[in-house]
Design a protein that fits this description.
The chain has 368 residues and is an alpha+beta fold. The protein has 9 helices and 5 strands. The longest helix has 79 residues.
């Protein structure tokens, strides 16, 4: 129980993220309020205005010293930003710099004013520790809300990273399942269909002409399913880019849309030289986007363009003539999640352009 209270107290002390602007304003206001009464000791006129200007400049020195130190510490520190001991050392170092500036500030004020402002002596340990405690309290009060927001953003970033990792793992699992299914269709189903076809041919001619004709038609249908339909399905489930490249794989994908949607392709030669993972990512994005065009449209036409958009960047664009959607209210569901997962895996960027009556356009850009 005691350890819990100690931990809570330590959390109240720090560490906090530094906001240089807030730190500067705090110390500027603190020293300005301390030096302002000196102005009243001067007679009205130019001398008072000169002293006022000097006080404004001098009041900036502690704020700039602390805020600049905090900025460079936050940007270039090589030790842990969550360690309380190092955090207190940082505040103590900044406070020490302000103490070192005080003789200069005192000398400047005495040149222009008859008042004798009293500065804390750096040699007095009690005063130094008291000022350090006040500095810790001030930084805590200024940055407590900011730390809460920063921690929540950090938690959100961790959740996003975890979600992206889960998506990548889900895609990986899905691809493995597709590969196993394709292997089963290729090795087992095709073999079984071939055996059945051979058995049907072996009994052809042993029955009536009508039965023989039915057996011939059944054999032809089985052969078509084995050599064409299953072959295309296997290629879609686990595309082999070494044979025919991306263009051939997309053409086979298009075979299932020929009767219901007109799809045209414009594939840059540079796309054929991509790594297998990038080729698979493009294929899956196109596959899902065309399915979306069919389901959410339905669209009558779609265009797929894959081209180099820079020396080290490739652009993928899928556009259809469907009814379009309102992007602010529409939830694309699982289809969009699949596309986003592949965009993340490819470390790319995606943009969607659509509105009611103006079709749907998806653009994905990634480095190559």
């Amino acid at each position: 129980m005691k350890f819990k209270y100690v931990k809570k107290l330590a959390s109240l002390i720090g560490p906090y993220p530094y906001n240089p602007t807030l730190i500067f304003l705090f110390f500027f206001a603190l020293y300005l309020s301390k030096f302002s009464p000196m102005v009243l000791d001067e007679p009205k006129g130019p001398l008072r205005w000169q002293l006022s200007s000097l006080i404004l400049v001098i009041a900036c020195i502690p704020g700039l010293t602390f805020s600049l130190s905090a900025y460079f510490l936050q940007r270039y520190r090589f030790w842990s930003k969550t360690n309380l001991f190092f955090y207190i050392l940082e505040i103590a170092s900044c406070q020490s710099l302000i103490f070192l500036m005080q003789p200069l500030m005192q000398a400047l004020l005495r040149l222009r004013s008859k008042s004798r402002i009293q500065f804390a002596a750096t040699a007095n340990l009690n005063i130094y520790l008291a000022s350090l405690a006040l500095a810790l309290i001030a930084v805590a009060l200024m940055h407590r809300a900011e730390r809460t927001i920063s921690n929540r953003l950090s938690d959100a970033d961790e959740l996003v990273i975890r979600l992206e990792a889960d998506r990548a793992e889900l895609v990986k699992s899905g691809e493995e399942l597709r590969r196993q299914t394709a292997q089963f269709l290729h090795d087992r189903v095709q073999s079984d269909l071939m055996v059945i076809g051979m058995n049907l041919k072996s009994v052809t001619g042993k029955s009536s002409p009508e039965v023989d004709e039915a057996l011939d038609k059944a054999s032809e249908l089985l052969e078509k399913i084995r050599t064409s339909d299953i072959k295309n399905l296997v290629q879609i489930l686990a595309p082999n880019f070494e044979v025919g490249g991306l263009s051939e794989a997309l053409n086979q994908l298009n075979s299932q849309y020929l009767k219901i949607m007109e799809v045209s392709f414009d594939i840059d030669a540079a796309a054929e030289e991509l790594e297998p993972k990038q080729l698979l990512g493009i294929f899956r994005i196109v596959e899902q986007a065309l399915l979306n065009s069919l389901i959410h449209g339905p669209a009558g036409k779609a265009t797929v363009v894959v081209k180099r958009s820079g020396s080290k960047e490739l652009s993928l664009m899928i556009e259809d003539n469907g009814p379009g959607v309102d992007l602010e209210t529409n939830n694309f569901g699982m289809g969009s999640a699949v596309i986003d997962s592949w965009v993340t895996i490819l470390q790319g960027r995606r943009e969607i352009h659509s509105s009611p009556g103006n079709g749907y356009k998806l653009e994905v850009n990634f480095s190559i």
